[in-house]
Amino acid sequence: MQKLRVNHNFPLNFLSSAKASFHRTFNAGIAASLLVLTSLTAQAQVTPASPAPSNSSGTTTSPAATGRGAGLPAGVNIPANIQQQINQQRGNAGSLQPNANGTNTPQNVLRSDGTVDQNNPNIDTTGNGLNKNQPATLEDGYEQARLREQAEQRRKLFGYSVFNNPDANATNPFQPNVNIATPRNYNVGPGDQLNIRMYGYSEADFSQTVSPEGNIYFAEQTGIGPVSITGLTIEQAKARIIDRLARKFVGLRKSSYGAANTFIDVSLGGTIRSIRVTVTGDAIRPGTYQMSSLSTAMNAIYQAGGPSELGSFRKVQLIRNNKVLATLDLYDYLLNGTQRNDFRLQDNDNIRFTTYISHVEITGTVKRNNIFEMLPGESLDRLLFYAGGFAAQAYKERVKVTRLTDMERKVVDVTKSEFASFTMQDGDLVTVEQLLDRFENQVTIEGAVYRPGQFSLDQHKTLKQLIAGAEGLKGDAFTGRINIIRTREDLAIENLTIDLTSIMNGSKPDITLQREDQVIIPSRFDLAEPAAVSVQGEVNQPQEGIPFMINMTLNDALLRTGGLKESAAASQVEVIRRKKDVDPRSTSAQIAQTFRFNVSRDLSLNADDNKFLLEPYDQIVVRRSPNYLVQTYANVEGEVIIPGAYVIQSKDQKVSDLVTQAGGLTPQAYVEGATLVRVITLSPDEVKRKQQAITDLADDVTGRSRVQVDSVSTSQPTSIGINLRKILERPGSSEDILVQAGDVLRIPKRLETVRVQGEVLSPNTIKFRPGQTFQDYISQSGGFTSRSQRKKSYIVYANGSVDRTRKFMFFNVYPRVEPGAEVIIPQKTSAPLTAQQLLGTATTITSSVFSLITLLLAYRAIR
Prior knowledge:
By secondary structure, the protein is of the alpha+beta class. It has seven domains: 157-176 and 274-356, Outer membrane lipoprotein wza domain like (Outer membrane lipoprotein wza fold like), CATH 3.10.560; 193-271, wza like fold (2-Layer Sandwich), CATH 3.30.1950; 357-436, Outer membrane lipoprotein wza domain like (Outer membrane lipoprotein wza fold like, Roll), CATH 3.10.560; 442-527, Outer membrane lipoprotein wza domain like (Outer membrane lipoprotein wza fold like); 532-624, Outer membrane lipoprotein wza domain like (Outer membrane lipoprotein wza fold like); 633-747, Outer membrane lipoprotein wza domain like (Outer membrane lipoprotein wza fold like), CATH 3.10.560; 753-825, Outer membrane lipoprotein wza fold like, CATH 3.10.560.
């Protein structure tokens, strides 16, 4: 009752626990929500704090780096444990730090100084602001989907892959080459190292670095002083240096003493100054970059990742001193490899990416399926040029343009003549379709012609012209009926039957062909069963289908099969020929005819060859000679003088003869253990019967039907019990059996053990002792077990013969034991009773009980 009461109260206990858990969870959620709401209210009401402090590198430190809650003003801090919970609700990715391109970088990829850790596995390497491990919340899922769409749109942009370098620190293919001669128009600035070489009448080398003030300084003893060269080109700086050095070295200029005999060369040294270049506008990575003073505008464009999805490839401005110095069209480089207006950059230059003018997408069978930027007034013809032109399978007569209107979309079909005049607009989608998968002028011929295949209808307008183009008819062509398979305009298939013989001899007019006609000219061989002869029996290479040839003889066919075997009966070669005119109403009608020949084994040509010619479908049978027998062998193993394989010399050779051939027995031979092993090949019926017997036995033992039994082998080695002692004492007697090919006679050494196995307590091998009985050996093996089936015990002797336990009245009579014997005690089998057997047993017992009760009652009544 106590257990029943506890189970009865379980629902109430469960509901109470669930209610308490819900209250705890609900109260914690309310507390966290109130705290976040208070923080947001404070952020809205408290006066905004001053900007976050900057670190030594000049980057702005994020709120997360200072320990304050993200988005809270100065002085309002969230406890660390609450901040951790908020971060976990955001997906364990930390807050998001805005990038220069407007995307967000997860806070967990920022260093302590606020800069981006490029080696962090969470960093966005695609330029699309995605975090690899960004949380899968609903809001972030929408953001990721938008960013993926944005990234896919970028990949479609023509030229995006050229400038898209996922790793900003990767090798720049547009890196300026510093191993070049100093450009003559290079502007010298602070930090440049100048190599000044003086040669001629006077020689000297100077290596000077331009100071921050723009000066270079020579040795004090020269008395030259500082030379201001900042802002000058290399040529201008060289002229100024010569002007100053000429005061000390008179040979640098022409004078009254003669022509100049000392010369100066000025070049950049190993240290090249860096300049600051700003990239603004719609770039992938806008910002300020430190670059080599040898850099050009293309270097800066690549460094910034190229235009974004809103940026223009056609109008990139180089701004210097607040004026547009040059405008670059990146398509010049992408399509033609030219770099027009690629000026060398100077300090404080600005590369500005303007917003794109118009985007047009082209898809289909063109060489480049991309989104291209079109300048005002550019036509469809120009777009096809940007796309690399039509692909080989393109339909060039007309393209489809899907255009956006103020209200909806519309489709414009532009023909080939309008390509040059059709002006593209922003948002156009151009689709180039494929050619139709059909031929406009093809006809086909197949069958008995020398060159079957496809031909042009323009040059082969009629049937006779097509046959002539196929190099004419073959000799086996059947011209009485040919077919032309024609496809109508409604795509229905029509069969035309033509008498080609009448057309070829001119009695009927020629047939005019149409597009996609298929002419089929059959062969006479296609209309008949393949003619062949077969050769079977004692030939080296029997063949079922030797192609029949006119005037083929019997020897010709035998030669095709490699000639006769040595076992062939050359005088009993038969040719079996089918009858073609058998009377179906006659029961005694001959259905085949047999011819017998005595052929020569060398198959040489003789005068009688052409007297009997083969006909199609003849069957040649070469019989085996009854007097030909192949040598066969039997093996003798064990204790004989010369064991090995011995030829069977006569058909009546017996076991005693085989022992005599082996030189007789050795003194150690155990004659009673001799065994003859013979491989018996079962016929298919015997295999089937044996399989069924094994299956039935397994069903009886297990009590189940349809027991799966392994297949029976057709060739099985079988031990035949022989009494070799009697055989050798009386050779040729009934005990001396005949020897067959493959027999193995095994004569073991004298055996001194008896093996006991099966249902005994300790199966083992025991030394044979004369006088001991079957039960003695059972006792030495521990005795019978409770599952021993004693009356089924049997013994296998060394020669392979078997003897079983017999019954005499109520006693078991066990067989005698000999050396080398194997005593086997089987296990009792107790098959489970079926439902029918159980019912029968129960009925029998019930009937017996009622009968016994009836007898008892009758007995009592009598008394």
